[in-house]
Structure to design on (227 residues):
């Protein structure tokens, strides 16, 4: 094939692909059958570490805190500012703890009370700080007033598992709802706690509205983590 003909054929293929991409079906609900593999996402690891840490502190269990630190140490976190789509009431500055591995190990030392075996485990976790990490998750903070909600626009890639986790300071009941760009409810997490998570696989790359609802009578800050 001569060069002009080859270039013309290549351009035709590229243009055809572009047309197909533009004509992708973005109607209906933007969720596919869960294609989750065996690998745990960074968001889930972060959620596990924070919840295990909270349990360890409440139960005064140094071993649980050490395990939480080990998990937390293996995940890099990027600080993000999420785009607010809608917010009821007046916003306040968000201030909430998001414990690092170092914070967790410091707490473990206090709880261990000089126990040599536990001190050895703490030292072992610290020595493993340079090991490979799971990257990708982003963490931001937000504020939701009493009996109000705050919504964010967050983009997730089609065909890849989407993950959102959030937690508050333990003073009210927070719930999470996720909607696609067509207004369809994709996921909700409702209970009497302030720890929430949603996981799904989008059919196409699109913007989702993540809404944090406060059912309590006091406004609070919260952490939100996404992949």
């Amino acid at each position: 094939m001569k060069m002009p003909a080859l270039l013309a054929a290549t351009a035709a293929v590229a243009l055809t692909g572009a047309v197909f991409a533009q004509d992708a079906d973005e109607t209906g609900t933007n969720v596919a059958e869960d294609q989750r593999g065996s690998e745990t996402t960074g968001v889930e690891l972060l959620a596990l570490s924070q919840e295990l840490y909270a349990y360890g502190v409440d139960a005064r269990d140094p071993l649980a805190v050490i395990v939480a630190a080990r998990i937390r140490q293996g995940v890099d976190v990027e600080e993000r500012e999420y785009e607010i789509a809608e917010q009821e009431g007046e916003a306040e500055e968000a201030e909430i703890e998001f414990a690092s591995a170092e914070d967790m190990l410091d707490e473990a030392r206090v709880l261990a009370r000089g126990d040599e075996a536990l001190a050895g485990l703490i030292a072992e976790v610290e020595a493993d700080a340079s090991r490979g990490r799971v990257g990708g998750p982003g963490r931001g903070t937000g504020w939701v007033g009493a009996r109000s909600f705050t919504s964010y626009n967050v983009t997730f890639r089609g065909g890849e598992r989407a993950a959102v986790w959030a937690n508050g300071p333990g003073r009210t009941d927070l719930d999470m709802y996720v909607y696609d760009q067509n207004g369809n409810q994709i996921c909700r997490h409702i209970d009497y706690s302030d720890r929430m998570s949603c996981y799904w696989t989008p059919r196409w790359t699109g913007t989702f509205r993540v809404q944090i609802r406060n059912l309590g009578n006091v406004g609070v800050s919260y952490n939100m983590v996404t992949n």
The first helix runs from residue 3 to 22.
